[in-house]
Write a structure and sequence with these properties.
With 345 residues, the chain is α/β, with parallel strands linked by helices. 39% of the residues lie in helices and 17% in strands. A seven-stranded parallel β-sheet has the order 3-2-1-4-5-7-12, with helices on both faces. Strands 6-15 form a two-stranded parallel ribbon. The protein has a two-stranded parallel sheet with strand order 8-11. Strand 4, helix 3 and strand 5 form a beta-alpha-beta unit. It is globular, with a radius of gyration of 20 Å. The N terminus is likely disordered. The chain binds NADPH dihydro-nicotinamide-adenine-dinucleotide phosphate and the ligand CC(C)CCC[C@@H](C)[C@H]1CC[C@H]2C3=C(CC[C@]12C)[C@@]1(C)CCC(=O)C[C@@H]1CC3. Ligand LHIR3OJJ binds next to helix 5 and helix 9. The site of NADPH dihydro-nicotinamide-adenine-dinucleotide phosphate has 26 residues, from helix 1 and helix 3. Homodimer.
Length: 345
């Protein structure tokens, strides 16, 4: 009878390993002595100790090649959240994740760590110190979040002691750091267009922004604590910097750090939200004729004008999580990493 060779626990795969979070995760795993297989639709770098497998995660055969001899899989691939392509989110985040689960089970993978999002419980209204037992959003803020909810459910439901397949979901919020392609670049682009003069609402709303290295730390701790009978099995965990900050203070610190003025003038939240909604309707109506990409979408206005910060007490208790980098240090390091986005450069 053929015996199955138990894959090495230091061999893992990162699906989405060419992306912002994925690459930081891969770099840390290599530092910790893991050998890593990256599976991604694109290859964006080369690194000793890392093998690249280019492919679409909806393709099970391609996944099976990358998952050979792998015991641990991190799944952090997703289409960009600001894409408007509902069919793409459905195909990659839902159908693709189903395929990832099947491929993991067929390849004999023991642990799957999903990058979910704290936004799975956000409906555009205030969340203060939200815990993981909040219900999933009934009206998610966009298609991206709608499919992140379905994806998280699929992964957590697949956790099975009988099959020897253990799953956990990490829910980060507002990831930022060096090489982030969205938060800082969008902010600077808006400032360069003169659109960052206004504070939406009274500016007191607290939110979580989480440094990418802390998010990586949470993922690796989750993987290392995920064992049969551990409390992590089939559960979701918020990973944040544990230092909620006023949304507009965070934006101002990044902008001022890069040489731009901080927003100063207040606008009522409902007015801006209403205008953003009208603009969005207009873009939908005009879509057959022209493509418009407004800076202030209803989703961004909701994120900019409400409280949304989360408790990471469960991660502290079950996996000993503690942020490694403080928010101030993280902002300083992030600002320093974007010399090309400084005013005047
Ligand atoms: N950034 C944030 O603030 C937050 C992110 N998250 C989650 O974290 C994860 C990582 O996000 P982030 O690093 O910011 O995103 P990125 O877009 O930087 O990384 C995602 C990677 O997945 C790749 N990818 C997309 N579709 C496929 C596919 N069909 N098959 C294989 N690879 C694919 C992307 O390629 P390509 O670029 O070509 O599309 C990209 O390389 C995502 O799951 C996201 O939902 C959660 C909370 C907050
Ligand atoms: C133009 C300005 C009013 C705002 C610019 C900053 C925004 C680009 C970011 C502020 C909060 C961020 C955020 C995400 C993306 C970038 C921001 C909107 C996510 C939507 C990314 C994907 C997630 O899973 C949730 C994030 C919430 C916070």
């Amino acid at each position: 009878m053929a015996t199955r060779v138990r894959p090495s626990s230091k061999r893992c795969a990162v699906i989405g390993g060419s992306g912002f979070l994925g690459r930081h995760l891969v770099e840390r795993l290599v530092d910790k002595g893991y050998s890593v297989a990256v599976f991604d639709i694109r290859q964006s770098y080369e690194l000793p100790g890392v093998t690249f497998h280019q492919g679409d995660l909806c393709d099970k055969q391609a996944l099976l090649t990358a998952l050979k001899d792998v015991s641990l899989v991190f799944h952090c691939a997703s289409p960009a959240p600001f894409s408007d392509d509902r069919a793409l989110f459905q195909r990659v985040n839902v159908e693709g994740t189903r395929t990832v689960i099947q491929a993991c089970q067929e390849a004999g993978v023991q642990k799957l760590v999903l990058t979910s999002s704290a936004s799975v419980v956000f409906e555009g209204t205030d969340i203060k110190n939200g815990k993981e037992d909040l219900p999933y959003a009934k009206k998610p803020i966009d298609y991206y979040t709608e499919t992140k909810i379905q994806q998280e459910k699929l992964v957590l439901e697949a956790c099975s002691k009988e099959k020897g397949f253990f799953t956990v979901a990490i829910r980060p919020h507002g990831i930022f750091g060096p090489r982030d392609p969205q938060l800082v670049p969008i902010l600077v682009d808006s400032a360069r267009q003169g659109k960052m003069k206004f504070i939406i609402g009274d500016g007191s709303n607290l939110v979580d922004f989480t440094f990418v290295e802390n998010v990586v730390h949470g993922h690796i701790l989750a993987a290392e604590h995920l064992k049969p009978d551990s409390p992590l099995c089939g559960k979701a965990y918020h990973i944040t910097n544990d230092e909620p900050i006023r949304f507009w203070d965070f934006m101002s610190q990044v902008l001022v750090g890069l040489g731009y003025d901080a927003p100063r003038y207040h606008l009522p939240y409902t007015l801006v939200y209403g205008i953003a909604l009208l603009l969005w309707l207009l873009t939908v109506l005009l879509r057959p004729l022209v493509t418009i990409k407004p800076t202030f979408t209803p989703m961004r206005v909701a994120l900019a004008g409400t409280y949304h910060y989360y408790s990471c007490a469960r991660a502290k208790q079950d996996m000993g999580y503690k942020p490694l980098v403080s928010l101030q240090e993280a902002i300083t390091r992030t600002v320093a990493s974007y010399p090309h986005l400084r005013k005047g450069s």
